[in-house]
Design brief:
The complex is a heterodimer of chains A (149) and B (144). With 149 residues, chain A is mainly beta. Chain A contains three helices and five strands. By secondary structure, chain B is α+β, with helices and mostly antiparallel strands. Chain B has a single domain, classed as Roll (Thiol Ester Dehydrase, Chain A). Chain B contains three helices and five strands; from the N terminus they run E-H-H-H-E-E-E-E. In chain B, strand 3 and strand 4 form a beta hairpin. The chains are: A mainly beta (149), B alpha+beta (144). Chains A and B meet through helix 1, helix 3 and strand 2 of A and helix 1, helix 3 and strand 2 of B.
């Protein structure tokens, strides 16, 4: 039997914006320390400059921390109870450096069911685009959340 | 950090394993940096139990950052252009995490020298915590 998903489809095409968020050296160093990342590019500005960057470089996935700052609406899905983080994708367009001011803009990308051995799950995918102070897109982040029957 | 070149790698080359752990303190520190103030389901057994997770787990966004560290052996994870992961199982605190990769494609595209890679984080045995793919851009020694 085909699953008839009901949710707020009017959310398609709507952008939910947050920020700007200032990327600080302290934040970059704290992220690297918490993740045990020993890459000196994230802790020593001289190392970042040696690679041709102007300032301390942020790890490629650090922008994901800002995604949760966007207030996303309930899509009012008529399926499942427990929702969990199923996956994530980061596409880097430009390296983020200390001092960057990032604005996040999120929209509902897709909602789709998938049936496997453990039953049916529905995936909700949000896409967030990060733009810096110069209007350059620096990263796209896709987050998938799954809900079970 | 040693500079690695595109030509240093070939199809089928293995990366890692990088064996690391996420300690309780690291997860707390990560949540504080993230702005998800502890205690929360990632740091407190009581809250984790209430929310049905059972044990405090490593946040997904932190697991992704751990996986990206694999590329520090390829000249640095700042070379990552795209990383796409699926969380297959909850990642525990204080347990060895084995992160490895396999080069699945090498190509030159629009002046960039790219490596495509399959990614895996396991417990060192049969449990798969995270699977995924990544695309990294490396310098070419033909440009030296």
């Amino acid at each position: 039997m085909e699953l008839k998903l009901e949710y707020d489809k009017s959310l398609y095409g709507k952008e939910h914006v947050a920020g700007p968020f200032t990327v600080t050296e302290e934040m970059i160093r704290a992220f690297a320390k918490a993740t045990g990342d020993l890459n000196p590019v994230y802790t020593d500005e001289a190392q970042s400059k040696a690679l041709g960057y102007e300032k301390l470089v942020a790890p490629p996935t650090m922008c994901t921390m800002f995604v949760r700052q966007v207030k996303l609406p309930d899509i009012k899905l008529n399926f499942g109870k427990n929702r969990f983080h199923a996956g994530q994708r980061v596409s880097v367009r430009k390296v983020i450096e200390a001092g960057d001011e990032l604005t996040a803009s999120s929209h509902l990308k897709e909602v789709y069911p998938k049936t496997g051995r453990s039953g049916t799950m529905v995936f909700i995918v949000w896409e967030t685009t990060f733009t810096n102070q110069n209007g350059d897109v620096v990263a796209d982040v896709q987050e998938s959340f799954a809900t079970r029957e | 950090m040693t500079i690695k070149y595109y030509e240093d790698y070939d199809l089928g080359d293995e990366l890692g394993p990088l064996v690391i752990q996420a300690s309780d303190d690291q997860v707390v520190e990560f949540c504080e940096t993230w702005g998800n103030k502890p205690p929360n389901r990632f740091t407190s057994k009581e809250i984790a139990t209430e929310t049905g997770v059972g044990e405090p787990i490593v946040p997904g966004i932190m697991s992704m950052a751990l996986v990206a560290e694999l590329f520090n052996e390829c000249g640095g994870s700042q070379n990552v252009m795209d990383i796409d992961v699926v969380f297959r199982a909850s990642v525990p605190h204080n347990s060895p995490l084995y992160i490895s990769g396999t080069i699945t494609d090498t190509r030159e595209e629009e002046g960039k020298y790219l490596l495509e890679c399959d990614l895996l984080m396991t417990d060192g045995e049969s449990k798969r915590y995270v699977i995924g793919t990544a695309l990294i851009s490396l310098p070419s020694n033909s440009n030296i």
